[in-house]
Every structure is written in structure tokens, then in C-alpha cells.
Amino acid sequence: MKRLHFHSFRQRLNAAFLAVSLAPLLLCSALLLQIFRFRMTADQQQNAQQQLSSACHALNTMQDGILSAAESLQRDGLVTRALAGAQEDSAKVYSSLYTATAAVRSTARFDLYSADGTLLYSTQAAPGEDALSPDWGILYEAAQAENGTLVYSASEDPTDPDAPVLRAAARLTVSGKTAGFLVAVMYEQQLREALDGMAGAQNELLVMDRFWHGIYCTKPAQVQTLASALRSQLLAGKALTGFSDDFLYTARQDSVTGLYLVLQQPQVFTRGTLRLLYTVSALCALGGAAVSIFLSLQLSRQMFRPIGRLHDAISQVGQNDLQVQVAIEEDRRDELSELAQQFNRMVLSLRRNQQALLENQQALNDAQIRMLQAQLNPHFLCNTLDTMKWISKINQVPQVALMSTNLADILRFCILPDEFVPLEKELQILGRYVEIQRIRLSDSFTYEQTVPEALLSCMVPKMMLQPLAENAILHGLSGVPDGKLTVEARELEDETLEIRVCDNGAGLPEALLGPYRPPEKQTRHLGLFNVDTILKKHYGECFGLRLDNRTDGTGACITARLPVRRRDAE
């Protein structure tokens, strides 16, 4: 099973190699393909806009010429009077018409109509076009338009190849009233000459009026079919598309003439082209995958050779074989070689530690035997103290009897298995110790305790107060006449119990005041250190001992701070 997991990790590592090597390749290929498509499409659209701009410029130039001719004729009183019905010399009217339209006459035929739509003059013969209705069509639109504005209309009969494809009309006025109309009639050939070369060799240019009726196409046979298809899409609010995905359409409305121009371009990326690009990309990806697989297998084989040796060595260590060592290739200087060296050092250290542990265990066993042999029986010692008490009473030595009794009580208290005791019991044992010290010091000091009854049930560490009283007696009351030892207890608002052991001695040096600080060099007097350590270990660093001098300047106080924990709550 271990070997199976080992190979599974190797397979995952190979997969990671492939992912790391193939992912950037595939991502870059896809990104470059999209950038290439975007760039080519943007260039195509930019080219389309340039071609449409050129076509619009040609139409605008033609419109400017027609408007200039209309303005010239409107200023000619002879022409306006003739349009109004006055008997004027026709030759002079024709002369004015030809002069005004000289610059643009090659692009269109120019007709002069009266206000009622009667054709009066024309630059070319126009059989069958004697009149246009002023109530509809292009003359009606021209009459409604502002003065100096051209209106355009597509051919009324698109099926007639000889019919004009576009008319442009301008209203001629006299004193604000319509005198007649100048109509420019353009045929397919004339528009073709005007727009020649604007669309390019492979593109198709379509011109439509404002109602999206076809006017002109570079391929005349497609003008109506293409216009009808695009008009239905425009009316439906859809984007311009062709009859297939092989063409790109760009539409633009000329702001001057109001005509719509649509440029049809072959798609740069047709389905066939995209299929070829995707095929080439897939083949490149497969080739890259094959190379990546080969390289990953070679790299993993070289990498896992030292890992395999390390795996076998670890398995031997798991079987408690600490004599194993991993062979290290001399020419290998990488992390795996360093790992093998660290493993060898670790196995050597484990072997040494195992030997040391065996030796220490043997030494511990020997020490335990010696300790058991040297141990005193506490019950034998207590019985001996009781014997001393009765002998003292028989011999009328009450001090010895009292000291024996108190010492026996203290000894029994010390050997109790309980780690915590009620404060009441702790104070009782403290009283026994104080009595022994008073006998020893010939009653040179008095003892007093002030503890509220409500705090007697609080649980405190066993033998916590004795070291504090011992320190006060030996160091505070030594050599002090009328010495006094007091023990006080109170509960603070934050449920903290403070127990103060005070004396009326000389006090403590300034350097020792404040929270208890262990001395840099430990001496044989470890009482305060042990009590402070016990409090901090049990309750946390915010508790422990504090050393202060009394406010009246007579003696010192040692304060033990610990949380209030009553016996009933334990």
C-alpha cells in the first residue's frame, strides 16, 4: 500500500508538470488567436469606415454642386419668372440652366418643374416624364423642406433598368413662395462613375434612401435583393448580417444627404479559416503535450530516484531499524541531497538518544530504589511524636508536648493527598506553626488573624501561608521587641482573594517592593519563590505575590492574590 501511495504522488506530480507546462501554452495560443482575430476585425472595420467616408465625401460633393446650382437659378429672375408662367425667352432660360449646372451636369440630368409639377426645361430629353405630382413624392417632400435643402427619393420602378435610380429635388422660391423645383435625376451609370473605386475590389457598396430602399449597388443584380434583406433586419432592430457568415456588413448614414451606405466585406475569418486555425492550434497543443509528457516522465524519474531510497529508509526506521543510512550521490547537490543528509543525521541522533534513554532509565530505576529504601514511614514518625508528647506530659514538660502535637498535626496535614484545602484548615495549620515558633522564640511576638467567616470556605493551595509567615518571623520580627504577626483576608470586587501576612519589623528594602521578582541567584530560602510559582501556575500570571511596606512605616506585608473559589463550587 505504501508503494501504491508513492506512485500515486508521482502521478500527481506528473500531472502538475503537465498542467504547468501545457496551461501557459494553451492560454497563450488561445490569447494570441483572439488577439489576432480582434486585430484583423478591427482593421477590417477601420478600412470599412474609411471607404464609407470616401463614398460619403463623393455624395456630399455632388450635393454641394446641386445646391450651388439651385442657388444660382433662384437668384436668376429670368428663370424664376419663367417657372411662374411668364413668357420668357426659352433659349435664355436654357442658357441659365446649363450655366448653373455645368459643374455637376456629368453626374445627373437636371429638370426644372413648375410649382404644379409640370416639366418645363431639362438638360436632356426625358420622354414620358412630362409631369410630377406636387401632392406626393419628391416634389411634395421638397415643398415641405426648408429652403436650400435637398431631398432624395429612390426609383419608383426598381425593375426598370432604364429608369433613374435616384432623384434629388430642391425648392426654388420667390419672396418666400414656391416658384418651382430643380430636380437632379441620376442613373445607375452616373452613380457608378461617381462612386467608382470607393468600395474596393472585393467589397460591395450599397446605397439606400432614408426608407432603406435600394438605390445603387456595385453589383446591380443584387441591389434590390440585398436591400430588402437588410431592410427587414433594420426594421426588426437586428444587427446587419448577410445571407451567410461569410460577410461582414458596416452601415452608416450620411449626415448631409441622409442616405444610408452599407459596405459588404468578405469575412477575414470564415468558418473554413477558423476550422483550419483551430486544427493547427490543436495539433500544436498535442505536440506540446507529447513533449511535456516525455520531459515530465524523465524529470520525475530522476527526481524520485533519491526519494525512493529515502522512502525505503524511512520504512526501515519505522520497523525500529536505526542502523539504516541513505546513500547520497556525490555529484548531487540539491534539496533532496540535503534532505538525505538531514535524515542520516536524524537517524544517528535517534540512535544516540535511544542509547542515552536506556542509560537514563537504568539510572532512574536505581534512584527510585535508593529513594524507597531511604523513605521514612510518616505513620511511624507521627507515632513517635505522640510518644514524645506523652513522655513530656509525664515528665511535666508542656512546651515539648505542645510542639510535638503541633508538629504531628502539620505532618499529617502535609501528607494529605489533597492539593487544595479550605482557607479555614490552612489557617489552623498556620496557627500550629506559629505556636511552635512562639515557643522557640520565647513568646517574643504575638499573633492575630482577621478573616471574614464568609471567606473561610475558599479553597487555597495547601501550605501556602506557612512560607509567608516563616519569612515574616525570621526576617521581619527577628530582634524586634513586642513583635506582632497579623494575617488578614478580603474579597475584592473582581472576585479576587487577597491574603496579607504582615509584621511590625523594620520593613523591606525599596528594591524588593512591588510584584514579587525571583532573585537572579537562587538560595536555600525558596519559600516565597515556590508560593509565587504555584499561584501563577494554577491561576495565571496576573496572580501571585506582592511585597509592600506598611503605610504607617512599621513593618512589611506580603500579599497573596488568587481567585475566589469556594468549597461548595468545587
For the largest beta-sheet, the strand count, sense and barrel status come to: 6 strands, mixed
Q: List the secondary-structure elements in sequence, H or E.
A: HHHEEHEEEHEEHEEHHHHEHEEHEEEHEE
H/I helix tally: 13
Mean pLDDT across the residues is 77
Give the C-level CATH assignment of the domain at 47-266.
Alpha Beta
Q: What is the CATH topology descriptor of the domain at 47-266?
A: Beta-Lactamase
Structural class: alpha+beta
Helix content: 40-55%
CATH architecture of the domain at 47-266: 2-Layer Sandwich
Strand content: 15-25%
Q: Strand order across the biggest sheet?
A: 11-13-14-17-16-15
**Cα gyration radius (Å):** 59 Å
Task: Characterize the quaternary organization of these chains.
Answer: single chain
Protein model, in words:
With 570 residues, the protein is α+β, with helices and mostly antiparallel strands. Among the domains are: 47-266, Beta-Lactamase (2-Layer Sandwich); 444-569, Histidine kinase-like ATPase, C-terminal domain (Heat Shock Protein 90, 2-Layer Sandwich). Helices cover 50% and strands 18% of the residues. A six-stranded mixed sheet has the order 11-13-14-17-16-15. A five-stranded antiparallel sheet has the order 2-1-5-4-3, sandwiched between helices. Strands 7-6-9-8 form a four-stranded antiparallel sheet, with helices on both faces. Helix 7 (271-318) packs parallel to helix 8, helix 10 runs antiparallel to helix 11 and helix 11 packs parallel to helix 12 (465-476). The longest helix is centred in the N-terminal third of the chain and has 74 residues, at 2-75.
